[in-house]
Design goal:
Layout lengths: L2 H23 L17 H4 L1 E8 L7 H15 L7 E5 L3 E7 L4 H8 L5 E5 L9 E7 L5 E7 L3 H6 L3 E4 L3 E10 L5 E9 L1 H16 L5 E5 L2 E4 L11 E5 L4 H14 L5 E9 L1 H30 L1 H23 L8 H30 L4 H33 L5 H31 L23 H24 L6 E2 L1 H4 L1 E7 L6 H16 L4 E4 L5 E6 L4 H15 L6 E6 L1 H30 L2 H25 L2 E2 L3 H30 L4 H11 L1 H21 L2 H35 L7
């Protein structure tokens, strides 16, 4: 490469990095509204409400009914936010996401729980009352007059007292009209379907003939309105009047519209996120990412000199390129808090390919090759290990994307994106920069570092010690689980994602001791909710999580008001999540399935690539070891097992097998070059040759995750802490166990000799 071309390569990469980064942050006009503001944020970052419904009934709904229901719900939620989305999950579930709303609890209350809607005649054909006014006692001990049914819905259907159902209502809107005194009043206008118009004409004519009877509107277990019929309604257009405020009229119209769905739905999962929590999450995550990027870049420069400078520039280019792709694919990619964690984690993993290549280059320089030749040879020899290691990690991300819970799919997306982009920057951008630096005159071997032949460490001689230590840790984990279960705390500290209920996360303005919370806050929560309360404080923050049984929307609102009025909490800093037991049981099942599928896919890939099933089985044994040790940590430290649990486990699986693949790739290469005379010596040599890579990559990734733990918000801490344990465990199993497992399998199941 000529000097002019080399200088141009460096200049282009620097300009692209600075230019894209500038536009990401400050935008085209430099006013601070960068392109990054166009990235679509998930609810956990933008704030808002999400809710998942399931169709009631054992039979699967038709595609037509599902499509019609989704269409009607979409029209309903767009009145709250133009960015609201309604989409189908599986065959019988509908998910709604309304980001960026400021009063999410009110929206959730207005949206209600879609259910059967009935218009009921006041009397049946025999003149018997179908409903009547009655005194009803409220939860707070007070009584009020309510209209209640005197029959069941089944009895009303049997005697023909149900006039029309929600399916007969085409639309319902709040509006105004003038009364007899020419005063404006708020009303609810109804438009009925042709079939509904015919039935309603008959019913209203009968009501007028019977002395202007009422027609009760029954929804979700109660009569929500019982307007009197003043005249027969023959054209399918009716209005409900009364002493309504506009808000009351809008809620009634909304309820009728939702009740007019073709399907009856029940709430499975709802979540309310305060906007301030999302802002804090973004700020702390960006700070963690920036500090981590600086530390990793400095580390690479100090350890690898000129190659380190090239990798640091490529790493910055990698970051701005990731942001650019998130902007470009904002129609299909939504950035969530786990997604940010995936990006930050991928920064630590992005140096892995560079470390593998740089170690190879130093080995070639140690053999006496020129710098130019060492660069080319190093990349050529490292290619297979880089591809195999990243593909196995990519398998974990893909499995998580398709089988993981919906709220960690953002993590899978950004992790997969990071893997692909990091391979591009490591294999091409870093290489171009190194060749350019060489062409500009940086040719001294000392600037690249010459590798020295290291005396192999006899890891295999200690394999019994390593295996006994690992077994002891795993057994200790099961002991902790047994003790925890016997004491009534549960084998693991399952969050709501796995047991169901409502969790309210509150960011107090000052720290509170557990005793203070128990004495002053918990009794008020129990009074409002009528439920036992579990309290969980978040280390190094003022956040506290209160767990109760599942709460209705009105109770959640009352709880929020209590925190705001009695403790001065900002309403935007309160996060509420409700999960049904159906969702939690599926979460347990899906977690197990996802981990098993990922391991099996990796086993198949390794079998195909290495042509030796013993490599695959050894890798899987190391993975199972890592999963069980991290599970033991969950049990011992009582870390919350939340929806990020499956993401944590699959990340550990993918990360650990990456390191194992690099070692096995070296074993395969050394066996091809030296024969199979002393297999144990070859394994020890291979592990020693890749030891610096195993340590350095684990260290850079550990730093990024540690920053997430110390600087991130509470919901990320439960993900970052066990992941740090998993990174260390993965490094240990790759170095100390994987080769030992392969040797044991080779001795027990020797390869068949070729004829």
């Amino acid at each position: 490469m000529k000097k002019s071309k080399a200088a141009l390569v460096i200049l282009i990469v620097l300009l692209l990095t600075l230019g894209i980064g500038y536009m990401d942050i400050w935008g085209y006009d430099g006013n601070g509204a960068g392109n990054a503001s166009d990235i679509k944020l998930g609810l956990d970052l933008a704030g808002g409400v999400s809710i998942t419904y399931q169709v009631v009934g054992e039979e699967a709904p038709s595609d037509t009914d599902m499509a019609d229901t989704i269409y009607k719900l979409q029209q309903r939620v767009e009145s709250y936010s133009t960015e609201a989305q309604v989409y189908q999950e599986g065959s019988n579930r509908i998910a709604i996401e309304i980001p960026g709303v400021s009063d999410a609890e009110t929206i959730l209350a207005q949206l209600g729980r879609p259910g059967a809607l009935y218009f009921i005649a006041q009397t049946d054909s025999q003149g018997n009352q179908n409903y009547q006014s009655s005194s009803v006692m409220n939860d707070d001990g007070t009584t009020e007059q309510k209209v209640v049914l005197t029959k069941t819905i089944e009895e009303l259907e049997a005697d023909g007292s149900i006039v029309i159902t929600g399916a007969d209502v085409a639309d319902a809107r709040a509006g105004t009209q003038q009364d007899n005194m020419k005063n404006n009043q708020y009303v609810v206008s109804l438009n009925l379907t042709p079939e509904g118009s015919t039935k309603f004409a008959e019913a209203t004519t009968r009501a007028v003939n019977n002395g202007y009877e009422t027609i009760g509107i029954y929804y979700d277990g109660e009569i929500i309105s019982s307007p009197r019929v003043n005249e027969p309604i023959l054209n399918g257009q009716a209005s409900i009047s009364g002493s309504f405020t506009y808000e009351e009229a809008e809620i009634l119209a909304s309820t009728i519209r939702i009740g007019g769905l073709n399907l009856e739905l029940e709430e499975l999962h709802s979540k309310v996120v305060g906007a301030q929590l999302g802002v804090d999450a973004i700020q702390t995550s960006l700070k963690a990412g920036a500090i981590g990027l600086a530390i990793v870049a400095a580390f690479m420069i100090v350890v690898y000199f000129v190659p380190g400078i090239a990798s640091a520039i490529a790493l910055c280019f990698y970051v701005v390129l990731i942001v650019l792709l998130l902007i470009g694919f904002n129609d299909v990619l939504t950035l969530t808090l786990p997604g940010i964690a995936g990006i930050i984690l991928s920064i630590g993993m992005a140096v892995d390919a560079n470390v593998v290549v740089f170690a190879r280059i130093r080995e070639e320089l140690g053999k006496g090759e020129s710098v130019e030749s060492a660069i080319n040879t190093g990349y050529a020899k490292a290619l297979s290990a880089i591809i195999d290691g990243n593909v196995t990690t990519l398998i974990a991300a893909v499995v998580l994307l398709f089988l993981g819970p919906a709220n960690v799919k953002g993590f899978a997306q950004t992790l997969a994106l990071g893997i692909v982009v990091s391979m591009f920057t490591a294999l091409f951008v870093t290489k171009w920069l190194m060749q350019a630096f060489y062409a500009l005159g940086l040719k001294n071997v000392a600037l690249y570092g010459k590798g020295k032949e290291k005396k192999p460490v006899d890891f295999l001689s200690k394999k019994a010690v390593f295996i006994v230590l690992s077994v002891a840790l795993i057994v200790a984990g099961f002991v902790f689980m047994g003790v925890n279960k016997a004491s009534g705390k549960g084998a693991l500290n399952y969050s709501l994602d796995f047991v169901g209920g409502t969790a309210t996360t509150v960011d107090f303005n000052e720290s509170h001791t557990l005793q203070d919370l128990t004495d002053n806050v918990v009794p008020k929560i129990e009074t409002i909710t009528g439920s036992n309360v579990q309290v969980q404080t978040v280390q190094n923050t003022n956040e506290v999580i209160f767990k109760t049984s599942s709460l209705e929307s009105s109770v959640r609102t009352a709880l929020e008001d209590m925190f705001v009025n009695d403790f001065g909490v900002e309403k935007t800093s309160i996060q509420t999540e409700t999960i049904s037991s159906t969702i939690s049981n599926e979460m347990k099942r899906d977690t197990i399935i996802a981990v098993i599928v990922a391991i099996l896919c990796m086993l198949v890939y390794i079998r195909v690539r290495f042509k030796d099933i013993r490599f695959g089985v050894s890798s899987v044994l190391a993975l199972v070891h890592d999963v069980l040790v991290v599970l033991a940590f969950y049990a011992a430290a009582r870390v919350s097992v939340s929806n990020t649990f499956v993401a944590c486990m699959l990340t550990i699986v993918g990360y650990s097998i990456n390191a194992t693949i690099v070692i096995f790739d070296r074993v395969r290469e050394n066996m091809a070059n030296a024969g199979k005379s002393d297999v144990k010596a070859i394994v020890n040599k291979s592990v020693t040759q890749t030891l610096s890579r195993s340590i350095f990559t684990s260290l850079t990734t550990f730093v990024m995750v540690a920053l997430l733990y110390f600087l991130g918000v509470s919901s990320i801490k439960d993900f970052a802490l066990p992941l740090m344990v998993g990174i260390g465990c993965g490094c240990y199993s790759s170095v100390c166990l994987a080769g030992a497992f392969w040797i044991i399998l080779s001795e027990k199941f020797p390869a068949k000799k070729k004829a």
